[in-house]
C-alpha cells in the first residue's frame, strides 16, 4: 500500500466500552499497526443528552487496559460542528444540496398518501429543484443532499463483498437540521475525510450508512475510504449479545481477572482467523492481520475458549508483567495492594503459580499460602488433616527439616525417607503439610511452598500446626 494506512475507532460516549466495540477497536489497531500506519480515536459525542464525560473516561480506560494505544489527540466530534456546517453550506453553494422548507406535517402527509397508493414512502421534497426566488422569507428550513435518483450505489466492501443499493432506495438525507445543527451522517463523513482515514473498519450494522456517507464524499469530490463491515458478536446461543449472556463491558472482564493479552488474542480470533492458529502474540497478530481473513458470519462468544487462551497467556507472560496486571486487578476490584514483602514472595513463587491459572483470582487462590499470615487458621477441609496423629508426625518431621539443606531434591528425599520409615507414602504426609503451610487442602506442591516461604517461615508454620496452633 503506497498511501499510509489510517484507521479510526469512533465510539459514542453513552456507556462503557462494549466488548463488541473493543473488538472493532482491536481490528483497527491491528490493521494500522501491522501496516505501519496510524490508529486514531474519535469520540462521537454529538448526542449531548446521552454523552457523558464519565462514559468517555470509561472508553479511554478500557482501551488503555487492553493496550490499544492511539496516535495523536482524541478528537471530539461535537467540537467540530462548525466544520461540518461549513461542508453542508459548500454543498449548498455547489448545488449538491438544497434548502427544504417542508414541515413535519407535510412530510407525514406525503408518506401517508404514498403508503395508501402502495408507493415508496421515501420523502421526495418539492423544494429539490425550486429556484431560490420561490423560497419563503424567514421560514425555517433544513438542508438536504441531492441523492442520485437513477442507477445504483455499490459499496466495495472488504468483508461483505460488493453490496449494491438501488439509488431509488436513498432519500435526500438531511445534512443540517432546522436549528442549523449537523446530523451524525454528515459529521462522520467529514471527520473521516479530514482525519485522512483510509480504511473504515466497523460493525456491519453501519453497512447501510456507508451508502449515505458515500453521497457526501461524491458530492465533495473526495476519494472514498476502503470499507470493511465486520459481523457483530453473538452470545453462545447464537442470539445478539445482550446482558443475559453475562459481561458486556470491557471493565467487567478486567474485574473478572482476565489478562489483557488473553482478551486481545481471544477477540482477534472472534471472526478473524489465521490458519489453525489459536494462541498467538500481539506481534504475530499484527503481522498476520488482513481484512480478507474476516468472516461474514457473526462470531459466538465462548467463555471456555476465552479462559483457555487466558491461561496460556498467563503462563507465557514474563513474571513482572503478571505481577503488574495482578496489582491492577487488585486495585480495580478494591482489594488491598500487595506489600513489598508479599510482592517479593510472589516473584519467587511465580514459576509455580502461573501454570494452569486461567485468571488472576485463580492465581491468587493458588498463592493463598503467601497471602496468609501466622498464626494460620486452617479451613474446615484442611483442619481435618490436623488430627492428633498428624500433629505428632509433624512434631517429629519438623526438627529433621530444620537441619536439611533447603534445596528441593534434599527436601523431597528427606520427606520420602521419613514416610518410608513410618511405613507410609509421602502422599499421606502431604495433607497435614498443606494444612500447616497454607491452611488449605488444595495448594501448589508442598516443596514449592517451602522453597518460596524459606526455612524460617516454613518451620514456624509447621511448629504452630504441630502444637495445635498458637
From TrEMBL:
Its EC number is 6.1.1.17. A motif ('KMSKS' region) lies at residues 240-244. Residues 339-465 form the Aminoacyl-tRNA synthetase class I anticodon-binding domain. Keywords: Aminoacyl-tRNA synthetase, ATP-binding, Cytoplasm, Ligase, Nucleotide-binding, Protein biosynthesis. GO terms for molecular function: ATP binding; glutamate-tRNA ligase activity; tRNA binding; zinc ion binding. Residues 4-307 form the Glutamyl/glutaminyl-tRNA synthetase class Ib catalytic domain. The keyword ATP-binding applies. It catalyses: tRNA(Glu) + L-glutamate + ATP = L-glutamyl-tRNA(Glu) + AMP + diphosphate. GO terms for biological process: glutamyl-tRNA aminoacylation. NCBIfam families: gltX_bact. Catalyzes the attachment of glutamate to tRNA(Glu) in a two-step reaction: glutamate is first activated by ATP to form Glu-AMP and then transferred to the acceptor end of tRNA(Glu). This is Glutamate--tRNA ligase. It comes from Roseovarius gaetbuli.
Amino acid at each position: 500500500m503506497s498511501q499510509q494506512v489510517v484507521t479510526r475507532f469512533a465510539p459514542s460516549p453513552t456507556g462503557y466500552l462494549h466488548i463488541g466495540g473493543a473488538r472493532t477497536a482491536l481490528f483497527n489497531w491491528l490493521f494500522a499497526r501491522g501496516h505501519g500506519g496510524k490508529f486514531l480515536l474519535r469520540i462521537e459525542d454529538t448526542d449531548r443528552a446521552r454523552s457523558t464525560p464519565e462514559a468517555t473516561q470509561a472508553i479511554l480506560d478500557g482501551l488503555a487496559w487492553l493496550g490499544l494505544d492511539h496516535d495523536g489527540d482524541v478528537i471530539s466530534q461535537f467540537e467540530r460542528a462548525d466544520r461540518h456546517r461549513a461542508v453542508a453550506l459548500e454543498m449548498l453553494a455547489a448545488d449538491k444540496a438544497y434548502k427544504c422548507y417542508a414541515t413535519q406535517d407535510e412530510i407525514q402527509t406525503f408518506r401517508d398518501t404514498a403508503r395508501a397508493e402502495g408507493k415508496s414512502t421515501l420523502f421526495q421534497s418539492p423544494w429539490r429543484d425550486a429556484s431560490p426566488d420561490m423560497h419563503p422569507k424567514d421560514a425555517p428550513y433544513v438542508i438536504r443532499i441531492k441523492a442520485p435518483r437513477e442507477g445504483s450505489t455499490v459499496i466495495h466492501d472488504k468483508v461483505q463483498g460488493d453490496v449494491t443499493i438501488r439509488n431509488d432506495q436513498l432519500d435526500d438525507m438531511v445534512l443540517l437540521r432546522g436549528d442549523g445543527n449537523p446530523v451524525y451522517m454528515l459529521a462522520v463523513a467529514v471527520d473521516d475525510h479530514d482525519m485522512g482515514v483510509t480504511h473504515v473498519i466497523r460493525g456491519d450494522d453501519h453497512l447501510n450508512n456507508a451508502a449515505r456517507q458515500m453521497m457526501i464524499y461524491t458530492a465533495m469530490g473526495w476519494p472514498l475510504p476502503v470499507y470493511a463491515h465486520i459481523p457483530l458478536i453473538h452470545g453462545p446461543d447464537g442470539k445478539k449479545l445482550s446482558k443475559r449472556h453475562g459481561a458486556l463491558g470491557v471493565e467487567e472482564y478486567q474485574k473478572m481477572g482476565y489478562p489483557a493479552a488473553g482478551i486481545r488474542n481471544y477477540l482477534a480470533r472472534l471472526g478473524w482467523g489465521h490458519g489453525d492458529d489459536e494462541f498467538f502474540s500481539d506481534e504475530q497478530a499484527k503481522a498476520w492481520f488482513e481484512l480478507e481473513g474476516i468472516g461474514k458470519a457473526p462470531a459466538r462468544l465462548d467463555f471456555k475458549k476465552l479462559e483457555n487462551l487466558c491461561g496460556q497467556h498467563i503462563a507465557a507472560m514474563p513474571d513482572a508483567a503478571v505481577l503488574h496486571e495482578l496489582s491492577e486487578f487488585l486495585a480495580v476490584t478494591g482489594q488491598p495492594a500487595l506489600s513489598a514483602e508479599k510482592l517479593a514472595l510472589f516473584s519467587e513463587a511465580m514459576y509455580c503459580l502461573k501454570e494452569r491459572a486461567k485468571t488472576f483470582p485463580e492465581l491468587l487462590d493458588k498463592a493463598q499460602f503467601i497471602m496468609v499470615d501466622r498464626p494460620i487458621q486452617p479451613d474446615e477441609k484442611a483442619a481435618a488433616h490436623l488430627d492428633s496423629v498428624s500433629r505428632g508426625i509433624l512434631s517429629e518431621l519438623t526438627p529433621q527439616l530444620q537441619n536439611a539443606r533447603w534445596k528441593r531434591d534434599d527436601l523431597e528425599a528427606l520427606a520420602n525417607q521419613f514416610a518410608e520409615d513410618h511405613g507410609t507414602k509421602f502422599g499421606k504426609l502431604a495433607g497435614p503439610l498443606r494444612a500447616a503451610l497454607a491452611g488449605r487442602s488444595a495448594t501448589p506442591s508442598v516443596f514449592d511452598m517451602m522453597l518460596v516461604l524459606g526455612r524460617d517461615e516454613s518451620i514456624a508454620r509447621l511448629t504452630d500446626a504441630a502444637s495445635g496452633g498458637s
